[in-house]
Every structure is written in C-alpha cells, then in structure tokens.
C-alpha cells in the first residue's frame, strides 16, 4: 500500500531545479557575517530573544574553538555586536513565568561526574557592547545529578534546544526536561559521545518557587541501538492522539529511524521506536520535524528532510504508532538534484516554518550545501502531502569572497533548525534567518566566516504581522477589549497546544495586583474577564495596569487603562 502511495506522489516530484511549480519569489540576501576574531566555528543555540526589552533582537551561539557562549544583539540596520559572553553551559528561559527570560546555567564537576543548574535573573541593565548588561548571582540552585543527563558537552555541541528543552510535557504545573544523551565511546584516543547509541532522559523540576528546585529523573530509555543519534526535542511537541497531553517526535541523523515519546500524565511516559531501515529511499534525517496544520483540516502535517535531498510527509494520526508507521510516510518531493558521483551527498538539512513574505502562505525552509542554496517551499493550498500544493524557490548563497557555499560547509544549516521563529531583529521591517556552521573543513584558517545573517527581500507591512490563519497559533498578540475600560475588560489569548498558562495583572509600579489564571488549559482561543479587583477582592483605582501572560511557547504583556 505504501509504495502505491509513493508512486502517486513521485509522479509530482521535482528533480533539482526543473520543477513545474512557479518560483514564489521568496529570496534572501546575505546582510551580515561574523568576524573570525569573535567567532571561529560552532552552533547556533537560541534566537529571536529580546532579553532587555529594548526592541533589538538577540541570538546565542556556542564557539566550540574557544568554548565560549556569545550573545549577539542587533544595534542598527544589518549590524550586530557581542553583548554577553560566558564559558559555562547556558541558555535562556522564562522559568518563573513572569515575562522575563532568566539565564540558566549547567555546572559540571569532573571529580564526581555530577551536574547541577543555577538560575540567574537579568540585572536590569541594557545589553551593550561594553558588556555592562548581564545577570545576577543565582537565587536558585538545583540538586546535583549524574552528568550523563545532558548531551553534547564532550563534543562541544553546546547547551542547545535541539537536544533538550523545558516543557510542561505531562500536563502538570512542574517543568519537565527532555534531554538526549549519547553513549560514551572512545574515538581518537579520547572519550567522546558520538553515534554509538542514544539515551533519552526526562526529568522533572519541582519546588521551583523555592531557592533549591529539585531535579528528579522520571524516565530513561536506557541505551538505544548503535547508530541512533536522536535530535528534535524542541519543536516537535504535538498532541497527536488528541488526548490533551503532549507527544514528542525525535529523528536520528545516523539511521533511518524515528522515535516517538508519549505521556500518559502523572509522570508516566511510553516510548515508541519506529525503524525505517527496510526502506532504501528514506535516508538519514538531519532536519528536525516541522509540525503544522497547513491545509486547515484540524490534522497536523509533519515534514522531514533527509540526506538524500528529499522531503518526507506524514499526518498526525490519532494512533501515535500509525503516525510514524512505514506505511504512512510519503515522499513529498526531491528538492536537491541527485548526485551520482562516488561519495556525493544530496543534503536537505535544517528545517524551519515561517511566513517570510507575510502573504499568509506558510513557508518551509531547508539548506543544501550540495546546490549552494537556501530552499523555500511555500504552501499554495490543497492536500499538504501533494507536491503540487507547493511552490519552490532557491536562493544561491555565497561566501564573502564570492565563492558559492559548497561542500566544505557540510555542517552549515539554517539557524532555525531548532524551531526559532523568523523575526525582524534589527527593526528594518524585514525578517532574518541565522545561518551557522561547525566548520569541519578548517574554513576559519582560510579566512572564511562561519556565521551569517540572511534577510528577506520582502519589506513587511509592519514589524509584527499576524500569523497565517491555517497554522496553530503560537505567537499571537495578547488582546483585551474594551481598552480603556470600566468596570471590566475581557482578555483574550490563544494556545497552540494544551499546556500550563498564567495570567496576572500588575500596576504601573510593578506590584502584583491580581492573579487571574495559573492552571492547565486546553488548546485554542480563550478569554478571561478582569473586573478591576485585586487579590483581596477590593476595587482598584483608576490608572495604568499591565496584563502579563505566559505559556510554554508564548509570553506577552498588554497595557490597559482603567477609567472610572
């Protein structure tokens, strides 16, 4: 049955650039690259942040050569500089759900092979090139756990969100941490983690409101088969079986394998490993799953790119194993021309969902060093598993010396590979992608940078646009009506998926006035009414108030005016 379905889809497949679909015109220009004195080579860790709230976007990278985290911030059109650096493993999250990102660090102790977390608040100073902005000493320190709970430390992959993330996975109010680790092995005389097997761990952080949050192991897969190196933790959380609880899809870039993890609630997890080794067409998966309901049929569409230049498609069946079944994954398209010479590859890597030109049609982005191009696949309507429902645009990419980005940059991929949103970081009304590389071919020694900003050619109508209405909404603006108001106002927000949500009112001096919401909520558009009363049910005076909303994927603040 599967091969009959593939045969139908293959009749629409495009080989290389000779495609029937028209070019959708979504092109990017290279507008910035890093200095080799600042950044040698490494990974993008996070992007699309505005930690100090000054309107200039930030992104975080890990330089494997200097073992340093570098936080870049825009300061003018197409201009970026380093505003924070640190040698500890780190990333940024809003763990206390107050609308302000905290710095989360992982510390290691070699003698005991243990790790622990510290959580740091922003110090209130604008982040700038003089490095005066930063973060306070930790108010919270977790207990110690064995160091094997976090992947990539030995190899310098950094503390990135492709292999771990905080989520409300099982639906309670505590943070869950799903982390991918790899089996230790010896390579080149050194102990490293590579492709000798993978361990999936899920921890829970409890007692977060105290100064000593507790990390507790809730699930471990044990060592999976050799050759499985799983990724995709960040952006593949969906409620596949529509039971109100999250499921997760991971991919392996060293085997034709997908893995699903589902929760039954109450810290109970059920792994599903699906082998694809029997299908020679389906090659290693270096792109993270892209999940969205493109065709508006209330069923999530799921896309993967592979190392053979192909994009694959499946739907979210209510039965989780069926979603990842060999019979339900279809070849959508070949977007990279097949290379026939010995040793040649056909990489289709990265993976990001956005709406680059703001036309209401979602775009999927991949990068291929084999054709030196960024690939934009734009949905035009129709069945999302049919190649004729998409148009395809290829943007040729060049190094600063004019040479095409070629096979020497085989690790290079869209910085959005972990699901970072396409944002306007430099306030010029055009959206950017960050492109970075580990540089496995010593490009730095030849004076070629490995960190780039690509900017859309399209000028957005506004710096912030409404998301396309066919997709689950994750970044929708918080609204209230009426505003100004008296005696009550209705506050509206949207959740893309079920999860924990908080809603609180603060006065103009930053004092908490009313906790309106702090509970597990279903997906969809929702409203909460504030009747201008405080937590003691007393009437509040006229003035300016701020509504602060937080979910696991969305934080927003809304200014409101009460007039009596």
Describe this protein's structure.
This protein has 564 residues and is an all-beta fold. The protein has two domains: 26-458, 7 Propeller (Methylamine Dehydrogenase, Chain H), CATH 2.130.10.10; 477-562, Sandwich (Immunoglobulin-like). The protein is built from two helices and 37 strands. The chain has helices at residues 2-10, 320-323, and strands spanning 28-33, 42-49, 58-63, 68-76, 79-86, 89-93, 102-109, 114-120, 140-141, 145-146, 164-167, 175-187, 190-206, 214-220, 230-231, 237-238, 247-252, 257-265, 268-275, 290-292, 301-305, 310-315, 330-334, 349-354, 363-368, 373-379, 390-396, 413-414, 432-436, 451-456, 479-481, 489-495, 499-507, 512-521, 524-530, 543-550, 555-562. Strands 6, 7, 8, 9 and 10 form a five-stranded antiparallel sheet that branches. Strands 15, 16, 17, 18 and 19 form a five-stranded antiparallel sheet that branches. The longest helix is centred in the N-terminal third of the chain and has 9 residues, at 2-10. It is globular, with a radius of gyration of 23 Å. The termini are far apart.
